[in-house]
Design goal:
Layout: E1 5-8, E2 12-17, E3 28-30, E4 33-36, E5 41-46, E6 59-61, E7 64-67, E8 72-77, E9 88-90
Parallel strand pairs: 1-4, 2-5, 3-6, 4-7, 5-8, 6-9
Length: 94
């Protein structure tokens, strides 16, 4: 996934569901930035997939999420697998 930025002057809502492979099925991965200048941000991700190795994460935060005048909501649900199937994962200094 490339790093992309999303910016808006109103509310921003992102909803994602992972694929059907046995592992690495992330709902949403933020690698760039999401900025709402005058609204709220809602991120909802569901990690899916089979009972493989894992990495079925709901929301991976590797970038920045900023709301200048509103709330930020992160909701993630991890999928099946043997490890690393968390709802929300915040990487490094994100």
């Amino acid at each position: 996934m490339g790093r992309r930025s999303i910016a808006g002057d109103r509310n921003i809502t992102l909803t994602g569901t992972g694929g059907a492979a046995s592992d690495n099925n992330c709902g949403i991965e933020i690698g760039g930035s999401v900025t709402a200048n005058n609204g709220s941000i809602t991120l909802t991700g569901t990690g899916t997939g089979g009972a493989g190795l894992g990495s079925n994460v709901g929301v991976i935060m590797g970038g920045s999420v900023t709301s200048n005048n509103g709330n930020i909501s992160l909701t993630g649900t991890g999928g099946a697998g043997s490890n690393y199937n968390v709802g929300v994962y915040i990487q490094g200094g994100a």
